[in-house]
Write a structure and sequence with these properties.
The chain is α/β, with parallel strands linked by helices and about 290 residues long. It is about 40% helix and about 20% strand. The chain folds into two domains: about 80 residues, Chemotaxis Receptor Methyltransferase Cher, domain 1; about 190 residues, Rossmann fold. The chain is built from ten helices and twelve strands. The chain has a seven-stranded mixed β-sheet with strand order 8-4-3-9-10-12-11. A three-stranded antiparallel β-sheet has the order 5-7-6. Strand 9, helix 10 and strand 10 form a beta-alpha-beta unit. Helix 1 packs parallel to helix 3 and helix 5 packs across helix 6. The protein is globular and about 65 Å long. Bound molecules: S-adenosylmethionine. The site of S-adenosylmethionine (SAM) has 24 residues, from loops. The site of S-adenosylmethionine has 24 residues, from loops.
Length: about 290
Amino acid sequence: MSALKKVDPTSALYEFEDIQLTEKMFTKFAKHMYELAGVDLPFSPKNHALIRNRIVKLLRRHSLKSYEQYWDMVEHGNKEVTSEFISALTTNMTSFYRESNHFEFLAQQLPDLYKKFGTDIRMWCAAASTGQEPYTIAITAHEAMQQVTGMKVRLLATDIDLQVLKKATSGVYEEREMQGLPPATRMKYFEKMKKNEVEYWRAKDSIHDMIRFAPFNLMSPKYEFQHKFHVIFCRNVLIYFDEETTKKVVDSLTSCLAPGGYLVLGHSESGNIKHTHLKPLSRAVYQKL
Ligand SMILES: C[S@@+](CC[C@H](N)C(=O)[O-])C[C@H]1O[C@@H](n2cnc3c(N)ncnc32)[C@H](O)[C@@H]1O
């Protein structure tokens, strides 16, 4: 059994320097993640380092001494263990106004969507991570609502990772997480708060109340929603899926769109998207025919 070397007794940090993640154990974790979340992690030095670095934190948290012990825990895991495993292996990088041309596009289209559908505009942000993306959508919609009398917008924001979803729901960000927000927008839609001498920014009700946050796994066999959406953002998550999963997810998302509505993917994800009911419009933006 490998020894744990305690490097800093006060911070309870441990170096798991001798513990090896074998290819066999790597494959078990990768397969499990694929089955749970569709995230494809073929064996490579980069993915080996990713799984090792993420799971070693869970060994620490649960005072386990080997990856095998953690696998025993995960294999027969309850909801909390499974959720923690998924959270550890998802990549949640995001920022306000990421791939900003999509928000310019949305601002232009919202008045027309309202005219065309004559109803509340329904949008879905399907891999919302810590919330910067749905709050950017809400800000864009709020600005448009000030120009168009009567227009209302509702936004559903979902993610498989319950930990990031909790943060998104709180709408509270540290200074470093506010990058991308122009100063005037920040002042208009966020308020400063202090906790334990640290300053945070909290989304104001004007945008917070436009969003409903809920867990949703894009691997779900059924996408059951009461109404069709007019715009779906599903950005920078298909890159973690293989071709077959991507196709299934794009089919399901398309089936949730109203004809004439828009599907917005990440900039690097649009290469292989072909769907008889999707017309490519601009960079990674499609319209349902
Ligand atoms: C890199 S982030 C992208 C965040 C945001 N859409 C953006 O573009 O900035 C990818 C997100 O997809 C989520 N995700 C991964 N697999 C998922 C699945 N099967 N169902 C729903 N969300 C998933 C992750 O938890 C993560 O928060």
